[in-house]
Automatic annotation (TrEMBL):
<protein>
    <submittedName>
        <fullName>Uncharacterized protein</fullName>
    </submittedName>
</protein>
Length: 74
């Protein structure tokens, strides 16, 4: 019975560590995306930018989507 509990605890710990690592990756990607959007907003608010700023058809960086949509490794 004790071996089963040890295996279960180790399995839970491994799962928590993987979730923590995934959370860290998502946090970094979200911060990168926030900086990217803030920079685009700043550029769009500069005089003389016209239609070359936000909404000009240039794709936004979506690093966080790539992380979220990655298949889970189990």
């Amino acid at each position: 019975m004790e071996d089963c509990n040890m295996h279960s605890a180790a399995s839970i710990l491994a799962s928590v560590k993987e979730q923590e690592a995934r959370f860290e990756r998502l946090t970094r990607a979200l911060e990168q995306e926030r900086r990217h959007v803030a920079l685009q907003l700043e550029r769009a608010q500069q005089p003389g930018m016209g239609s070359s700023g936000v909404g000009s058809g240039q794709p936004l960086s979506m690093a966080w989507q790539q992380l979220v949509l990655q298949p889970q490794e189990m």
